[in-house]
Amino acid sequence: MDKSSQVLDLAAVEKYLRLHLREFKGPLDAKKFETGQSNPTFLLNTPSRNYVLRRKPTGVLLKSAHAVEREFRVQKALSETNVPVATMLHLCEDNAVIGSSFYIMDHVNGRNFVEPTLTKLDHDSRRLVINEMARILAELHKVDIDLVGLSDYGPSGNYFERQLARWSKQYLLTQTQPIVAMDQLMSLLQTQMPADDGQRSLVHGDYRIDNMIFQHNGTSCQALLDWELSTIGHPYADLAAVIMQWQMPPGQEGRGLAGVDRKELGLPTDQQFIDTYCEYRGLKVIENFKFYLAFSFFRMAAILQGVLKRAVEGNASNPGHAQKLGEFVPVFAQKGLETLVK
Fold it and tell me: Is the CB of residue 305 less than 8 Å from the CB of residue 174?
């Protein structure tokens, strides 16, 4: 297995940061985060402050994948908006330093919730955290992309048509075994695609509670992380992705809410979350939501297929976890198919 992207040449990193970060003072040590399947991410410790380094993995990469340069750009652009992001400090595109491009950002001190069940919180806090999820998502979709310099961050045209073509191609390139449900889902999505309604906004692409950092002793979001899949697209894609995740079983692997008594825990129903989001955005109703939900299942299946392929080839950030994630590919495909044919 190629482990070069799983460790850091600390001497090289420290030498580079001394030259490019005015406030940087060593000595430096690093610890790799267990999360961050796609782009290896490290906590950098120094006597005065902590940083986070996020890099591309090594090995042969699919075109447009692992674009840390885009992650850096979008978060920097959002720094003056109502969307909370970590402070971007430096982007290095010189592969000679550590073997790949990377960027440095501020370490956001807060707490992270792996699962939406939020079992460590009380009833009211759970409600407030999930409400914050809806609020931040609405704020993201209200960002004026022209004003923040992101109008060229993604192509124009029908977002779902574009994304279906992209992820179908990526899935076929990384396929490890035939999945009939996935083939059927790709075909049905093509034939049932709604007309473009003209909505065009910044989309996160992987909007989940485990990609958010919250206050240690509160329910406000301090930073939205992991922007690798962000682009200019249709806002309902992000919203549907949240609902999709909640259809999965609870626990470390599924990280969903299937079978959970949400009312008892203080968690909203799917429709209540959608309604809250619509209220924050000033929308009345979302038509044909089942298409957007089915598309989200398809897209996640394609993404996880890529994670599985990297595990098979020895390039996954966490190979064991990547193999487990790969087992969900047929599950997501089947759920997407069932959503469309209801």
Answer: yes
Assigned token pair, 155:
């192509």
- The residue from 79, 106, 133 where one domain ends is 106
Residue 92 sits in the same domain as residue 159: no
* CA–CA gap between residue 141 and residue 202 (Å, rounded): 6
Over the stretch 297-324, which tens digit does the pLDDT of each residue have? Answer: 999 999 999 988 888 888 776 778 788 8
Nearest to residue 154, comparing CAs of 245, 95, 232? 232
Domain assignment present for 202: yes
**pTM given for the model:** 0.88
Gap between the Cα atoms of 231 and 210, Å rounded? 20
The single-letter code of the amino acid at 82 is: N
What gap in Å lies between CA 290 and CA 247, rounded to an integer? 13
Q: Say which DSSP state 206 is in.
A: S
Q: Compute CA 209 distance to the chain's CA centroid, rounded to the nearest angstrom.
A: 10
* Chain centroid offset of residue 119 CA: 22
21 and 137 share a domain?
no
Per the structure, the complete domain to which residue 316 belongs is given by 123-341
Mean pLDDT along residues 245-271? 93
Do 31 and 43 form a contact (C-beta atoms < 8 A)?
yes
Q: Annotate 246-270 with b (16+ C-beta within 10 A) or e (fewer).
A: bbbebeeebbbbeebebeebbbbeb
What does the block give as tokens for 192?
A: 């049932």
24-36 confidence digits (pLDDT tens): 998 999 999 876 5
> What is d(CA 212, CA 231) in angstroms, rounded to the nearest whole number?
18
Amino acid (one-letter) located at 219 = T
